[in-house]
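Figure 6 in text form: structure in, sequence out.
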């Protein structure tokens, strides 16, 4: 997983993703609804395993929502293994910057990715964190609960940030702080996320922020401190452009206030990342270099501003 490359937004268990901007700057929406497979007949109420067995070979999308006895559920199919070339590139960047937190965390795809996601969801659920419940599991697919609990839709934090930005800096910073607090809540329980981008944090109907997308596990290759730093850098990278356009000074106060509860090792590693990334402040500003370049530049500039003592 590359924390400095924004993928298309995944469908959140709780709502289909609405359209946004161009694919290079905004995650792609789900396709327009199309007639799905006919309902499965003859299943007992609550037979999640039977529903998964029957529906999995009939589903064409990687992730799709279904209704089962009036309950909204999400079926996730095993996907292909990610190409190894992307990890060689990321490994080169990590080595150049001497940043262990950017070391590749391969997504194995297939049955291995399904097993990782199911295990991580159960772990986080046991810690009292808001994640989709694993209703049924096979080697090639998962059936997950809906974070909206079928009563209402959840809202992806990425979308909330965009909406808040239109209202002004104060509104944006309030939502942005919600994301920081949600990540801090995970770390306070002695664990980490997987891809802590704003697109993988979702606000549930009761206001609690939940977490999605766990197809890889950075703890397999990194220590816990490094994984937690990776969470912070992933979130900052995905939100840096909005934050820099608002009030970076106030955002920095939020940043340091939340990090005050992090371990000394985590704070030291973030300061080290700010130091080693400082040259990225000078990446080209032109949009023709792509949105990812702009995000990296914005992230490096914020870190440099907030951690001047490390430069």
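Output sequence:
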């Amino acid at each position: 997983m590359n924390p400095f490359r924004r993928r298309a937004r995944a469908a959140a268990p709780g709502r289909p993703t609405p359209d946004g901007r161009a694919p290079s700057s905004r995650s792609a929406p789900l396709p327009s609804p199309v007639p799905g497979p006919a309902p499965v007949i003859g299943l007992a109420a609550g037979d999640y395993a039977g529903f998964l067995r029957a529906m999995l070979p009939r589903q064409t999308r990687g992730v799709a929502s279904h209704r089962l006895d009036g309950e909204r559920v999400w079926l996730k199919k095993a996907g292909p293994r990610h190409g190894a070339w992307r990890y060689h590139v990321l490994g080169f960047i990590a080595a150049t910057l001497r940043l262990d937190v950017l070391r590749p965390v391969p997504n194995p795809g297939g049955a291995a990715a399904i097993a990782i996601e199911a295990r991580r969801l159960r772990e986080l659920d046991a810690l009292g964190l808001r994640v989709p419940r694993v209703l049924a599991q096979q080697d090639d697919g998962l059936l997950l609960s809906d974070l909206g609990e079928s009563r209402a839709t959840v809202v992806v934090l990425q979308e909330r940030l965009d909406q808040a930005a239109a209202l002004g800096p104060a509104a944006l910073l309030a939502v942005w702080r919600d994301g920081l607090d949600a990540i801090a809540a995970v770390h306070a329980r002695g664990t980490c996320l997987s891809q802590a981008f704003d697109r993988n944090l979702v606000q549930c109907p009761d206001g609690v922020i939940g977490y999605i997308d766990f197809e890889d596990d950075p703890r397999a290759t990194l220590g816990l401190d490094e994984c937690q730093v990776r969470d912070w850098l992933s979130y900052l990278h995905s939100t840096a452009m909005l934050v820099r356009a608002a009030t970076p000074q106030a955002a920095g106060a939020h940043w340091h206030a939340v990090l005050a509860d992090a371990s000394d090792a985590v704070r030291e590693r973030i300061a080290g990342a700010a130091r080693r990334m400082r040259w990225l402040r000078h990446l080209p500003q032109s949009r023709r270099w792509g949105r990812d370049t702009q995000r990296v530049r914005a992230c490096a500039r914020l870190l440099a501003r907030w951690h001047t003592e490390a430069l």
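Caption detail: Confidence is low (pLDDT under 50) at residues 1-10, 15-35.
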